[in-house]
Design brief:
This protein is α/β, with parallel strands linked by helices. It folds into two domains: 33 residues; 97 residues, 3-Layer(aba) Sandwich (Oxidized Rhodanese, domain 1). It contains seven helices and five strands. It has a five-stranded parallel β-sheet with strand order 1-5-4-2-3. It is elongated and about 55 Å long.
Length: 138
């Protein structure tokens, strides 16, 4: 099976290169639609300088076990229904935080579609925050 795949790639390398290019462009486009990723330090600086907010997308149990100071907890599954709670941040930075930085992309698209202007994802999520030994509250 693998030999057939390799044979296909060698014989149809132009098609394979085109497919690869399209996949890369799609991934980049999707990432751009959900907002850029920030390091935890960049996120802290942005929230402090522009009066933004951290939105923790984890469920209530994870949030209560430790979260960023003054973060708003709206579980990802309930974001669409509770989006109005973030209304005062429509023109301010909204930093989306999840467990490992993967759920934030879809949430970012929802917020951008709802008219939020400055939506960002925190790369690595709370896992990265903990790795950097940044403070949390319970």
């Amino acid at each position: 099976m693998m030999a057939l795949f390799i044979e296909f790639i060698t014989q149809q390398w132009v098609l394979f290169a085109a497919l690869l290019a399209v996949v890369v462009m799609l991934v980049m486009h999707e990432a751009r639609k959900s907002g850029p990723a920030l390091t935890p330090q960049q996120a802290i600086n942005l929230v402090n300088s522009e009066e933004g907010v951290f939105v923790d997308l984890r469920d209530a149990v994870d949030f209560k076990s430790g979260h960023i100071v003054e973060a708003v907890n709206i579980p990802a599954a309930k974001l669409q229904a509770r989006i109005d709670e973030l209304g005062k941040y429509r023109q301010r930075p909204v930093i989306l935080v999840c467990k490992m930085g993967q759920t934030a992309g879809a949430a970012g698209k929802q917020l951008k579609a709802a008219g939020f202007e400055k939506v960002y994802k925190m790369g690595g999520g709370m896992l990265e925050w903990g790795n950097l030994q940044l403070p949390t509250v319970k």
